[in-house]
Amino acid sequence: MTKKIAALMTIAALALAFPVSLIAQGFSFSIPFGSVKLVSAFIQDASVSADTQGSETAASTPAYWIKYVGGEESGTLDLNANAIEFFSGPLGSEVINGTTGSDVNVGDLCGTANDSLDVTDAQCDTPEELCQVVNDAGATTVVPWVCVLGAVTQAATLATAAEYTDMADVQAKLPGGVPVFIDNDDVDELGILMRPDVGYEVRPNDNNQGQGDIEFFLKSARRTSADVNSYAQDQFDNPFEGQRAVLTYILANLNSTTAWTLEVRARKYRPGGSVDERVVFSTVDTTDATDEILDFSRAPLVSGPGETFLITASDDALVTGNIQYSGYFIPANIR
């Protein structure tokens, strides 16, 4: 019996024990079965020759989720030079609006062009900063865009157009919004965000790549299934409030020309698109390791209240890679 099969059997046995009790790190406590959400997901790098939206591998995960929530018929995203551009207007005739109350680049924080965020600018060259600029633009006006940080570390540098796959006028006014992907030909970080809605919610959105979408982070869409069609939505300050993430198993692989690092970060979302992150596990693998198997089933990694986990594999010469994980979410007030 291989270690991989043995690990999966351990996870299955643990899953069957949920209705009775959980034993971890020397503590035993009961969990109501209906309060546990089992989650498991797989990703692989999005290295593609076309480098355009929609050509990513089906399992890749985004740097951001962005949604147009304004009153125009359509809102689209494009990548031009080093700028992410935001268009709105009649379907098929979207334009850079840039008028007061619409411009995402309020105060010319990221370049000087209206409705365009230059990622080479120091205030938009990390994922967290770009999302904050988009969301802060609507803090005192009615800017009709929302942005959520995805499966990249908050401090990752994404400072040129080459580090993104081209959005190519992708539609962003639709249930679930649209993911913005990094191009792993040019970015040496691969990540996956642990979410309680993966595998539980299915929406008519071809852009979610099977890894969830923006609706989990938006208030109205969490009330009724019909609200995913709403375009007047605010973000939760912390969508993971009241929950804890429990990570039991990781299998990662990087076909790298150098040593590579596998890290787990506990992440807490804050208002306006910012996050707090702390590394809770880190290991370094030798060059071109076949597999890194981490079985936490006997002593799971447990997040703090309102936190989730971000799993990343990185080096300075990423070739190909994949990550899969298993775990679950439980109420934060479990004692």
* Rg, Cα atoms, Å: 20 Å
Model regions low in confidence, pLDDT < 50 over at least 5 residues: 1-21, 23-27, 55-59
What is the number of helical segments per DSSP (H or I, 4+ residues)? 2
Overall shape: it is globular
Q: How large is the share of residues in beta strands?
A: 25-35%
Q: List the secondary-structure elements in sequence, H or E.
A: HEEEEEEEHEEEEEEEEEEE
Query: Count of DSSP E strands?
Result: 18
The portion of residues assigned to helices is under 10%
Distance between the termini: 36 Å
Give the helix/strand layout:
Elements (H helix, E strand, L loop, with lengths): L2 H14 L5 E3 L2 E3 L7 E8 L19 E5 L5 E7 L2 E7 L26 E3 L8 H11 L7 E5 L20 E2 L6 E3 L8 E5 L49 E13 L4 E10 L5 E11 L6 E4 L5 E2 L5 E7 L5 E12 L4
Antiparallel strand pairs: 1-2, 3-18, 4-8, 4-10, 5-6, 5-9, 6-7, 11-17, 12-15, 12-16, 12-18, 13-14, 13-17
Textual characterization of the structure:
- 7% of the residues lie in helices and 33% in strands.
- The chain has 335 residues and is mostly beta strands.
- It has one domain.
- The longest helix is centred in the first third of the chain and has 14 residues, at 3-16.
- It is globular.
- The relative contact order is 0.19.
Summary keywords:
single chain, 335 residues, five-stranded antiparallel sheet, four-stranded antiparallel sheet, disordered N terminus
Brief sketch in words of this structure:
By secondary structure, the chain is mainly beta. It is built from two helices and 18 strands. The strands form five sheets. Strands 3, 12, 15, 16 and 18 form a five-stranded antiparallel β-sheet that branches.
